[in-house]
Amino acid sequence: MSKLKIAVQKSGRLNEDSMRLLKNIGISIDNGKDQLKASAKNFPLEIFYLRNGDIPQYLKDGVVDIAIIGENVLIEKGNDIKIAEKLGFSTCKVSVAVPKGANYNSVKDLDGKRIATSYPNTVNSFLKQNSIDAQLHIINGSVEIAPNIGLADAIVDIVSSGSTLFKNGLKEVEVILKSEAVLAVSPKISSENQTLLEKIQFRIQSVLKGQNSKYVLLNAPNDRLEDIISVLPGMKSPTVLPLAENGWSSVHSVIDKNKFWDVIDELKAKGAQGILVCPIEKMVL
C-alpha cells in the first residue's frame, strides 16, 4: 500500500507545532529519539525530519509528497511549489532592520547600502520592486550581528517578537512579507497519494475551523428571539430550543473567534442572558 511522505522541521518551534497538528488530526507517530524518519501507526504516512532549508528541494525532487514548512522558506527556495493550506501557526515577518541610531525615512534610504541576509532571493525581489541598488552579504545565521561588526548597514531577517533586534541595537523599518506555516505539495505527488493528501487536508480543515470558532449557548426571551438570532450566523442557522420557563428559549450557535467580543456585546444589548462560551475541538462541515 502506498504511503504519503511528509517532511517537517527536525527541531524547534515549527517542529513542535507541526507534531501537535498531526496529533490533533488523529495521526499517531511511532518515533524514537533522534530518528530522521518515522511511520504513523494508524494512517499510511511516513514522516521525514529535515532541515527547514532543505525541504523545498525534497518537494521539488518528489522525495516527499507534502511538507509543513514556513511560507518564508518556500518563497525563498521554492516559490513554484503549490501551497495546499495555510495553517495559522508559527507566524513571523521577514523584515528590514537598521541600527537604532540610523536616520531612516523610507525604503529609498537603502539605496547604495550593504544588506546582510539569509534570504537573498526574497531581498533581491524586494529591492527590484522598489528600484533599489544595494549590495547583499549572504550570511547563514546570526545576521543581527552584521551591523555591529561593520559588515552591513542593514539586515533582512525573520522577526517574531522583535526581542533579538532589540538586544542587538536594531530597529525594524520595513516588513517585506508576513509568513506562517503552510502545507506545501510536491509537483510530483502521485494520484494515489493525492487521495491520501485530500483526507489529511479534510482533517486539518476541521481542526483549523474548530480553533477559529467558539460554541455559544444563551437564554433569550421569545419576544427578542428574532433580533438575537439575526446576530448569530451559525453553521446553517442557530439551534433554538424551548426552556422549561414559559416565554424563554435556549439558543445555540457558533461564532468566529475574531468577532467574538463584538457579537457578545450585541447579544447582551438585544436581551440575551446566561451566555456560555465553549471551545470547539473540531468542526466537520
Fold and architecture overview:
This protein has helices at residues 13-24, 55-61, 71-77, 120-129, 163-167, 191-211, 225-229, 260-269; strands at 4-9, 29-30, 37-40, 45-50, 66-70, 82-86, 92-99, 114-117, 135-138, 154-159, 170-179, 181-185, 213-221, 239-242, 248-256, 273-279. It has 285 residues and is an alpha+beta fold. It has a seven-stranded mixed beta sheet with strand order 2-3-4-1-5-12-6, sandwiched between helices. A five-stranded mixed beta sheet has the order 9-8-10-7-11. A four-stranded antiparallel beta sheet has the order 14-15-13-16. The protein starts with a strand and ends in a 6-residue tail after the last strand. 30% of the residues are buried.
Produce the secondary structure layout.
Layout: E1 4-9, H1 13-24, E2 29-30, E3 37-40, E4 45-50, H2 55-61, E5 66-70, H3 71-77, E6 82-86, E7 92-99, E8 114-117, H4 120-129, E9 135-138, E10 154-159, H5 163-167, E11 170-179, E12 181-185, H6 191-211, E13 213-221, H7 225-229, E14 239-242, E15 248-256, H8 260-269, E16 273-279
Parallel strand pairs: 1-4, 1-5, 8-9, 8-10
Antiparallel strand pairs: 2-3, 3-4, 5-12, 6-12, 7-10, 7-11, 13-15, 13-16, 14-15
